[in-house]
Automatic annotation (TrEMBL):
Biased amino acid composition, Polar residues: 227-239
Superkingdom of the source species: Eukaryota
Location of the region described as Disordered in the Swiss-Prot/TrEMBL record: 217-256
Entry protein name: Uncharacterized protein
Length: 291
């Protein structure tokens, strides 16, 4: 019986020695010599853009409440908001007063919606390049998402037409073919625009899937490895290399033999073609005749 109790104690001590390192890791944060490092959330400074005020205010109050010091708060402001914040004295809750003043000036929902609509109407493409069109879609989507969150009525065919007119005619045509000519949902239009532009960006970069039937460069039986810019496949190039693919070769040009009467040989004046002449076969004599 004593031996059994002794074995149980030894086993318990052995398990305790295995668990102890993990317990020490969990309790290291309670050590007075080690400071707990919390992740610092980056917050872009606010420069007076009404569209960014709500996000700035929410993020600051949620994650930077420990930055209640007036001087630290000034580091997050630029331009006009910074001038407003500096106009308040620091003797009685300056942070609260500054937040109220900025919220009154930049947090008016009606003004923000008007500002966002004006911005969305002012968007325009910098060029017809696919990458520029892609950036334009991202900008419109970001602005529209903000407006949609404040105004559920900001939708409809008129808005879709206004957005679609900002893109080149060939992009509009591809989108209309996909949507069937009818569209009333802005997010659906933006998603379709993004898919069309994304496909053409891949094609322009030379990594498009040429086996995809939805690709406008696709042709039945086309070799996916061939270059889109040369009219020859790899098989025809190999044939020309080994002289076995004559159908891709161009016929002899007239300039090879000069201006001559096709009914007479240039070298012997018989009624046969010069390339079939059997009388003058030496290259030096042929060159002399051509001169």
């Amino acid at each position: 019986m004593r031996q059994v109790i002794l074995d149980v104690r030894i086993l318990a001590d052995h398990k305790k020695s295995k668990i102890q390192p993990f317990l020490s890791l969990e309790t290291t944060s309670e050590s007075p010599n080690q400071a707990v490092k919390l992740p610092v959330l980056h917050l872009d400074p606010f420069d007076g853009d009404m569209a960014e005020w709500l996000a700035f205010k929410t993020t600051f109050l949620k994650y930077h409440v420990n930055m209640g010091d007036h001087e630290k708060y000034l580091q997050l402001l630029r331009k006009e908001p910074l001038m407003i914040a500096k106009s308040f004295s620091q003797d009685r809750e300056p942070l609260k007063l500054v937040m109220e003043e900025l919220d009154l000036r930049y947090g008016d929902t009606k003004e923000v919606k008007r500002h966002l609509r004006k911005r969305s109407e002012a968007y325009h493409k910098k060029s017809d390049a696919w990458q520029q069109q892609r950036e334009l879609v991202d900008e419109i989507r970001c602005t529209y998402t903000q407006i949609k969150g404040m105004d559920s009525g900001y939708d409809g065919k008129a808005i879709c037409e206004m957005i679609l007119e900002k893109f080149p005619a060939y992009t509009q045509k591809a989108v209309l073919e996909k949507l069937g000519g009818e569209f009333t949902d802005v997010m659906t239009l933006l998603t379709t625009l993004n898919s069309v532009i994304k496909l053409n960006v891949r094609i322009a970069n030379g990594i498009g899937d040429l086996n995809n039937k939805h690709n406008r460069f696709w042709r039945p039986g086309r070799d996916s490895h061939q270059s889109r810019y040369s009219g020859k496949t790899k098989s025809s190039q190999r044939g020309q290399e080994y002289g076995s693919d004559d159908h891709d070769r161009k016929p002899a040009m007239r300039s090879q033999f000069g201006q001559y009467n096709r009914d007479k040989c240039l070298f012997c004046e018989d009624n046969n073609k010069p390339e079939n002449c059997m009388k003058v076969t030496d290259l030096a004599h042929r060159n002399q005749k051509k001169k």
